[in-house]
Each structure stands twice: as structure tokens, then as C-alpha cells.
Write a structure and sequence with these properties.
single chain; about 300 residues; alpha/beta; Rossmann fold; five-stranded parallel sheet; 5 strands; about 5% strand; globular
Length: about 300
């Protein structure tokens, strides 16, 4: 697999027209990103003396409300996040952060409380983005699945990832919020190799499975085409009924997200339930901010002094 973009969207050639990729736009973005590498170094040098802060990373199964959570966090906390503008600079993220900081009014960014999205994608240039190509560039290990084996892990440069996250934070001068849809099977390595604060978002299995199946139908016109993260061995599951496929997908994701040293990373992992978030969003946000404060000593909650 030569193009890391394939790693973030294996099924792109099967999408209905509404969700199809704009290949010409992608080509232009590739050219822009390739021609800005020297400028990226200038931005990094300009802000290298600034403090960096641990990033906040949302990880979950698809269709668990991760976009809603990131919109809430972005609109309520004293943090920065990856906008749809910044996401276009996936190979030169410090430039993307700099342009976002210069070109997007902070008041517009706080309008993310519109809380609308389509399959995790937001519409406006100032709204949060999944930053899919950025994560695919770092996590691509040349397979057709997202669950690395031991040899695959050696192909991922976590030190480089952590450095880029630090540089982005230095540009914004705040903690930065991300979500990563292809991260569940790299959860332990992310904890071990970086200093990010992780929010694991949970949602009950029945509703999540139903929502994934609905998304398959909307994106591909059928329930059979695999969508989103691919656990190791997903090919053998494709002979099963779609509902069995998705139940297995959900189980494999949360098996991985529960397989870490909970005592060691007690202050770095916050488990958030979608049902609690919807019922009492401010209570859940306050709890997240308190745990981030314990981990970093930094209060990101603008509602508390």
C-alpha cells in the first residue's frame, strides 16, 4: 500500500455519489502539502520555545457520538482542536494550526455547539475534523486492516507522532483536541509511546450496531459493505450476516480498548458513556476536565475558576 490515504478509507470506491471522494481536490491537496515542507520547519522553529501541553484524544467505536463529544469539548473548554481548514494540511500540521489560528475567528470556532454532522463529518470550515489523513500517515503499516501485529508496530514512528502533536500545541499555546477513528487497536502503544490524555467513549452495543448498519446502507446502498475500522481477521467475518459482522467489529474494538494497565494509566484515561453524556453533558464535561487537571495540573474548564 503506497498511499496512506487508502489506510483511512479502504472502501472509498464503493461509496454512493453523495459520499464519494473528490480525487482532483485530493490531488491539489497533495501538491500543496508536498510544497510546504520547508515552511513547516519555519513554523516549528518560530514556536519552538513555547510550552507544549498533552493532547486530548477521543477513541471509540464508530457511531458512538465521538463527533458530538468533540463538538461539546471544543465549544466549552479552553482548548484548541483540528478544524476542517487545518485538516487539509495533514502533512504539515503546524502550518495548518498556524493558519487556523490566524484565519478563523475564535467566536466562529465556539459556534461548534451547532452539533450537526453526517457520519462524523462536519460542514463548516471552523468545525472539528477527524484529521483522518494525518492519522493515516502516522499509523499506516501497509495492510488492509487497522489492527497491527508485532512486526507492523515497528513501522509506526510514535516518537515522530508525539513530536508533531507537541509542535501543534506550541502553535496554539493550548492543549489540542483530536479524535482518531483508526486508533482503537493502537491504544496501548499510544499510552506507552506518547503523553496524550485519552477519552474512551462507550455506547451500548445494540444502538451502536444499529447505527453502523444504518450508515452502511446510507453510504453504500447496502448492508453488506464493510465500513470503518477493520479488525484483524475481518475478511473471514464477511461471510456472516451484516449484523453478526458489526457485533464482532464492536466486540473486537472494545476488547482492545479494555486491554491496558488501568492502574498505571488511571489519570490518563477517562471512560465516558454516551448515555451519560446525552443525559448530563455538563456533568460529564466537568468530570473530564477534573481528570485532565489531575493529570496535567492545567484547568481547561472555562466554567470553573
Amino acid at each position: 500500500m503506497d498511499d496512506f490515504k487508502d489506510f483511512s478509507s479502504f472502501e472509498s470506491n464503493k461509496r454512493l455519489k453523495l459520499f464519494s471522494k473528490d480525487l482532483f481536490f485530493d490531488e491539489i491537496l497533495d501538491n500543496i502539502n508536498s510544497n510546504l515542507l520547508e515552511s513547516e520547519k519555519l513554523i516549528e522553529k518560530q514556536f519552538e520555545a513555547n510550552n507544549s501541553y498533552p493532547s486530548i484524544l477521543v477513541i471509540s467505536s464508530p457511531r458512538t457520538g465521538s463527533t458530538y463529544l468533540t463538538q461539546l469539548l471544543a465549544s466549552k473548554f479552553n482548548i484548541s482542536y483540528v478544524s476542517n481548514l487545518m485538516s487539509k494540511f495533514y502533512n504539515v500540521p503546524s502550518i495548518g494550526a498556524f493558519l487556523q489560528k490566524k484565519m478563523i475567528n475564535i467566536e466562529d470556532m465556539k459556534k461548534t455547539n451547532v452539533f450537526q454532522s453526517l457520519h462524523g463529518n462536519t460542514a463548516n470550515i471552523y468545525e472539528p475534523s477527524e484529521f483522518g489523513y494525518f492519522w493515516a500517515r502516522h499509523f499506516n503499516f501497509g495492510q488492509n486492516h487497522h489492527e497491527p501485529e508485532e512486526e507492523d508496530l515497528k513501522k509506526i514512528n510514535f516518537k515522530k507522532l508525539n513530536k508533531e502533536l507537541e509542535n501543534i500545541s506550541k502553535v496554539f499555546e493550548t492543549p489540542v483536541l483530536y479524535k482518531c477513528s483508526i486508533a482503537p487497536f493502537l491504544f496501548k502503544q499510544i499510552l506507552y509511546e506518547t503523553n496524550v490524555f485519552v477519552i474512551v467513549l462507550n455506547r451500548n452495543k445494540k444502538d451502536t450496531v444499529s447505527s453502523i448498519l444504518k450508515t452502511r446502507k446510507e453510504r453504500f446502498g447496502n448492508y453488506d459493505t464493510w465500513w470503518s475500522i477493520r479488525p484483524l481477521g475481518f475478511e473471514s467475518m464477511q461471510k456472516e450476516k451484516p449484523v453478526i459482522q458489526v457485533q464482532w467489529q464492536y466486540d473486537q474494538i472494545y476488547k482492545s480498548l479494555n486491554d491496558y494497565d488501568k492502574n498505571k494509566y488511571l489519570n490518563r484515561v477517562y471512560n465516558c458513556n454516551y448515555e451519560d453524556l446525552v443525559k448530563s453533558p455538563l456533568d460529564e464535561l466537568n468530570s473530564i476536565a477534573k481528570q485532565y487537571l489531575i493529570y496535567t495540573g492545567l484547568n481547561i474548564n472555562t466554567n470553573e475558576k
